[in-house]
Amino acid sequence: MKAYILRRLIVSVVMLFVVSAVAFSIFFVIPRVAGASPDDLAARYVGKSAGAAQIHETAVHLGFTDPIYVQYGRFVKGIFVGEDFDTGPSTVHCAAPCLGYSFLRQTPVLPDLLSRLPVTLSLASGAAVIWLLAGVATGVLSALKRGSVFDRSAMGVALAGVSLPIFFTGLLSLSIFSYTLGWAAPGGTNPMDAANPAEWAYDLLLPWITLAFLFAAAYARLTRSGMLETMGEDYIRTARAKGLPEHTVVLRHGLRAALTPITTIFGLDLGLLLGGAILTESTFSLPGLGQYAVLSITENDLPKVLGVTMFAAFFIIAANLVVDLLYGVIDPRVRAR
For the residues of 276-298, what is the DSSP string, one character each? Predict the structure, then answer.
């Protein structure tokens, strides 16, 4: 087991380095290939009235004139030991782990990400509980009542949930349940400013349900498919022949086997949302990582975009690592391979 964990950790670290190299290349190498000069990259960080000499001096201070491998090495070094940024008038130190420095806002990227993480974490965790319970329960009942009115209705709703984009269901739910009926909090509130847990849950209730509706639909269809395949296996018939109660056969034997692919999907989905639920946070104006990513792209602030990309990649790779380790615990054959 220790060797298996060590292998997965090494693979995860290597993957982080690969993601960092690819992301850095997208933001800093591809513009060079497309013909952008260091002065062109530095022009966005100076005023409109700046002359060519001032732009070139800024490019030198920001390190854009250095070779690409030097810039990437400086970026990786900053993650482990921090980095000093020469802004011209002064030198700013970005403490490790440094994911970049916004020259537009004159602030390090990581503190901004950490300040927005609780909102995204609250949104993702609450929605995950709802979609996991609702999706799996609906899928199991649909499989047990195959062909019934409940099965057809549930799968019809699930198909609609998978098909409808989050910005449509989000705006529709805001219009109905918030602005018309007044049952939920309107968009634009920061749940972390809530005075108590009840107010915090009230602010996030509509985003939770809207986001969970999208994922619960997919989980219901996946669980139904897995249960239909599992309940026809020989060991299920053997368990029934031994006189086991039906709920034991369904939950302990049928559902346990059907949950294997759901474990994989759940880990990756949760990791992806922790990296930023862009559409949901933009629709409900939640100040999380997703909204931060959109604002960074709108401002064309490349260090912030690179930082949030690395932050999201960390959560996705970490979630994938946890899923791999759970597989090793559940199925010893995975460790042997």
Answer: --HHHHHHTT--SHHHHHHHHHH
CATH fold of 110-336 reads MetI-like fold (1.10.3720)
Which phi and psi (to 5°) does residue 181 adopt?
Answer: -90, -25
Residue 284 has φ and ψ, to the nearest 5°, of -100, 5
* Tens digits of residue pLDDT in 195-213: 888 889 988 999 998 888 8
**Could you tell me the CA-to-CA distances from 22 to 34, 101, 109, 183 in Å, in that order?**
16, 19, 19, 45
pLDDT tens digits for range 18-52: 988 888 888 888 888 877 788 887 787 776 777 78
Convert 30-49 to b/e letters by CB count within 10 Å (16 or more is b).
eeeeeeeebbebbbebbeee
Domain coordinates of the chain in residue numbers?
2-108, 110-336
Q: Which of 267, 251, 259 is nearest to 330 (CA)?
A: 259
